[in-house]
Amino acid sequence: MSAVAEHKKGSASMQPDLRRFDLRRLVALVTKESYQALRDPSTLLIAFVLPVVLLLLFAYAVSLDAKEVRVGVVLESPGASAQSLAAAFSGTRFLNTHFVHDRREVADQLVSGALRGYVVIPQDFEQRLAQRGAEPLVQIITDGSYPNTANYVENYARGVVQTWRAGLDVAAPAQSVVLEPRYWFNPELESRRALIPGAIAIVMTIIGTMLTALVVAREWERGTMEAVLSTPASVAEILIGKLLPYFVLGMLSTLGAAALAVFVFGVPMRGSLAALLLLSAVFMVPALGQGLLISSLARNQFLAAQIALFTGFLPAFMLSGFLYEIDAMPAPIRAITRAVPARYFVDSLKTVFLAGDIWAVFLPNLAAMAAIGALFFLIAKRATRKNLE
Amino acid sequence: MQADTAMAATPASAVAAAAVVIEGVDKHFGKVQALRSLSAHIHYGRLTGLVGPDGAGKTTLMRILTGLLVPNAGRVTLAGYDVVKDNDAIHVASGYMPQRFGLYEDLSVMENMRLYAQLRGMDADRNADLFAELLDFTRLGPFTKRLAGKLSGGMKQKLGLACALMARPKVLLLDEPGVGVDPVSRQDLWRMVQALTDEGMAVVWSTAYLDEAERCESVLLLNQGQLLFDGPPQQLTAQLEGRSFRLENVGAERRAVLTEALDLESVSDGVIQGAGVRVVLRDGAQASQIQALADRARVALAPVPARFEDAFIDLLGGGPGGTSTLAERLPPVELGSDIAVSCRNLTKRFGEFTATDQVSFEVRKGEIFGLLGPNGAGKSTTFKMLCGLLKPTAGEAHVVGHDLRRATGAAKSRLGYMAQKFSLYGLLSVQQNLEFSAGVYGLEGNTRRERIAEMIETFDLSEWLSATPDSLPLGHKQRLALACSLMHRPPVLFLDEPTSGVDPITRREFWTHINGLARKGVTIMVTTHFMDEAEYCDRVAMLSRARLIALDTPDALKRAAANAEHPDPTMEDAFIHLVESADREMEAAA
């Protein structure tokens, strides 16, 4: 066995390398992890296909705007004023009106869900309008099982009636103040523009937290961690070697999603690309840290996936201000959102896409994300020891 | 001299004659005591076997030696370094191959080797010659581009060994490298390890296989966390000299004779060896009882050399009795035909790859029929087709008269199947596992209650009913798995590597039941890597590279392998001989 004999001569001169951190070992681990990520179709699926699906979903399927809401208008009064009010309803692009003369017809349609509400212009509408001092009565019935839409229908119908009334007697002093609303950053109030930047945060959470938790848990599950731990590689090298490829993957995925948002979905990009990249890079710190922490607690993939879902994905979805406005949440929930790193990221993303590079917004957000991330890493480092205890 | 070179790199302050010094080590996990005040030395230039049944503490000790676990008490040094304080140095001085294949299955052979070379501080590009040597040493040269996950069990172990050998550790720790490895690959591993110890490396080989222990220069025998013996295996075996006998050529009656022998007061252990029965007498017992048995059976009784396994069983207080309470309760099996299982030109292809190629044989009622072969030879595929888990690509198979292609359901209801690793439901209790298997085989009402009660009684499971299977001692776990597969009293029983990683005593108990079942007419189909178990079979079918290369009784197979070098070959020799000559024929044909 001359092979091993020569081998031995070679190593006799080799000093035991006891450095805690060795770049060569790190490079070896990163190379290994990259091969694995590239060969595992599920990794690429999560990093590149999932963002596209999510963005498409948020761009087309989820819409918080009430547009073309089907509303019935019951015209019980045959008078000219009533006719002109009805015409005012049909003239808006936000309501899809449907005229009838009997409220029983629309009542059934409301029950069946074909209509979201209806407006009744009663028989005595003309008389009341003619009487000085007596306000005309218009009834609005809405479907309370869709509270948002119901609210919207109510407000919009009220607005239509008021505008119509204002146009009726121009000289009326009661209507001297006219409100002229303008919506900054998103003038058409398209929810897509606010949702898509937020969706990038969701994608990054999935890659950073979920994927990382899974790949580390996989090493424990398959027994490969035991073999790597028995080599001179240090915990720091093993963990960084694990995270670096997923950091790069996350950044690539962000770039892809941003390009999709701007060029396909028409979301404006008012801030700079550099700011977007910086924000994303800093957000990867808590996202990866959380993934690492989960994997150091759960050493099997199923459990890791569950924990990542409940502590990473769901809070990023519900508590980040992505779907639901944080200001509208009750105080205790609002307090909880402060611990959700995605909250700071969603806020920053909306700013960088819709408003521009506003460092007064970015800096506190960056600081918060970095702080939460550092905390996760600190706990993960303490929880990961270089043995199997 | 070699050992001296290896010592040169150790710090002068910690020079010790031994590669590993274990002093009073205790280790517990919660309430479970894994190691109790263990002290031992392991030396350079020697192959040390770490031997013991499952759960003896072998893996725990291995992990302590590599610095992956911290002992609760005591002290361990490896190559002069303390495993706790000099943890980093330990990882440089030792090479460790975990029990489970620890390499990356989605990386190729070369990528795995490069990774481990770099992790151990070697420049992979500058050491191309070393790589070539290691590949040559492991005979993995032709497979460098193959993904590790696609290697056979034996090749995986060799790759693991190559990676553990990177940067030449002083101490090589191999945790059960022989599990799931066929005899041919196992021989390769032995050859490699031998070469390493010849050059002064300390190699620790942990195993539950006692034939492996016998080949070690020194053994540490562990049982329930305690060291029972420390020394050369021959020393232990020598104590048993004169107590081992064989009843020669017992033939068809051997199972009955074994049962009788084991029930004798003077016999501590017994196994079937081909047509013969091998027995070990208790300490101080006379051979008169066994001689009387031999006379009654009209066979010769010959003294045979003691084996390490005899000594091991004796040290643990002897094997179990010979009577299977289970088989006693079973009514004899009645079948319409004398053939229980048959297959003709059975073929299975996965895409381009042929896993089973035109295999034909017939198994008689009440026969114990073994399927043997190297890893990847097609044993499992053939086996799975015969019990209806895989659909054959071509050819036919019948189980108790049911065509497996048409009447899979009917055939399945007539066979019992015990999968590798027992496949019990870990989240269900023992009682629930029994109820589930009764339910799954369609037992209802009184029959169901009676069968479950019967299984609980025969297998002595009443104390464990509310426990989970994982918390059972291994022997009980195996009984439970057997109980579940026998719930519907199948006339044919399929056992897929039933005793892989199981200690010899549990294994004997298991075979007592199997022998009892066979005597009642139950047909047993078994796959195994254990050559000892092949000896229990009436006939053995040997598969290699998807083909049936031999089918005969164990004795006939052994006789065919006899030559001047090996006048009395073991089953393992016969196996290697058959596989190698089949390979030569294939190559000659190609």
Summed up:
Chain A has 389 residues and is mainly α. Chain A has helices spanning 2-12, 23-39, 41-61, 80-90, 103-112, 125-130, 147-168, 191-222, 224-229, 235-264, 273-297, 301-318, 331-337, 341-355, 359-383, and strands spanning 69-75, 95-100, 117-121, 139-142. Chain A has 2 domains: 21-61 and 189-383, no CATH class; 69-168, 3-Layer(aba) Sandwich (abc type-2 transporter like fold).
Task: Give a structural overview.
- The complex is a heterodimer of chains A (389) and B (590).
- Chain A is elongated, with a radius of gyration of 30 Å.
- The model of chain A is unreliable at 1-17 (pLDDT under 50).
- Chain A is built from 15 helices and four strands.
- With 389 residues, chain A is mainly α.
- In chain A, helix 2 crosses helix 10, helix 3 packs parallel to helix 10 and helix 11 (273-297) packs across helix 12 (301-318).
- Chain A has a four-stranded mixed sheet, with helices on both faces.
- Chain A folds into two domains: 21-61 and 189-383, no CATH class; 69-168, abc type-2 transporter like domain (abc type-2 transporter like fold), CATH 3.40.1710.10.
- In chain A, strand 1, helix 4 and strand 2 form a beta-alpha-beta unit.
- The two termini of chain A are 38 Å apart.
- The longest helix of chain A has 32 residues, at 191-222.
- With 590 residues, chain B is of the alpha/beta class.
- Chain B folds into four domains: 2-236, Rossmann fold (3-Layer(aba) Sandwich), CATH 3.40.50.300; 243-322, Alpha-Beta Plaits; 324-414 and 490-547, 3-Layer(aba) Sandwich (Rossmann fold), CATH 3.40.50; 426-488, no CATH class.
- Helix content of chain B is 36%, strand content 25%.
- Chain B contains 22 helices and 24 strands.
- In chain B, the strands form five sheets. A six-stranded mixed sheet of chain B has the order 6-7-8-3-9-10, sandwiched between helices. Chain B has a six-stranded mixed sheet with strand order 20-21-22-17-23-24, sandwiched between helices. A four-stranded antiparallel sheet of chain B has the order 2-1-4-5, covered by helices on one side.
- In chain B, a hairpin with a 2-residue loop joins strand 12 and strand 13.
- In chain B, helix 5 (128-138) runs antiparallel to helix 6 (153-164).
- The longest helix of chain B is centred in the last third of the chain and has 19 residues, at 571-589.
- Chain B is globular, with a radius of gyration of 25 Å.
- The interface between A and B is large, with 43 and 54 residues.
